[in-house]
Amino acid sequence: MSDRGLVYVFTGDGKGKTSAALGIVLRALTHGWSVGWVSWYKEASWGISEHKLDTILSDEAKKRLFFFPMGKGFYLQNGIMSQHVGKVKIVRANSAVIVDDDSADSHRIVANSALQKAENLLSAVDVLVLDEVCNAIHDELVDEKDVMRIVEKRQGVHLVLTGRNATQAIIKKADLVSDIKKIKHPFDSGKLAIKGLDF
To answer: Among candidates 142, 75, 80, which has minimal Cα distance to 115?
Structure first.
């Protein structure tokens, strides 16, 4: 058997991609492995529940978790039905308003910093999660070739890539791909996400 790490991809338009990655994180930590997590889009200031994962871990497990929420928030491309309020782009999605107050260049800078962080973590962990990196490729915030470079350099590190719109190159390279499809979602009927359940 190869000693190369496996590549898992959770993609599709359904809810559960990040949740699946979190399940792997808990399994890996319980197994005694070191885990790195790099998030695109999700900001540290959002108070996302998984960003507080270290508060429930043992002191020993905390030393093996490297968590980096490196996003700048939502990225609303000009092609979608958004409107500008000053320099802020907004879009109404059912009963919620999604806001993007950064330029495309600013998003790209942060996204590429996250990519560099992920590459640096390859030498420090057994499992590395690239949360929403597939979205970042699709939104042209990072280049697919740069993500593929991390995939190629992984050696024994197991990689977990999440996000909608996984590219064919990533799907082809992956050992496991789950296409998580949306059948029904509370958001469709105007219900907002619930902290502790959805984020």
So the answer is: 142
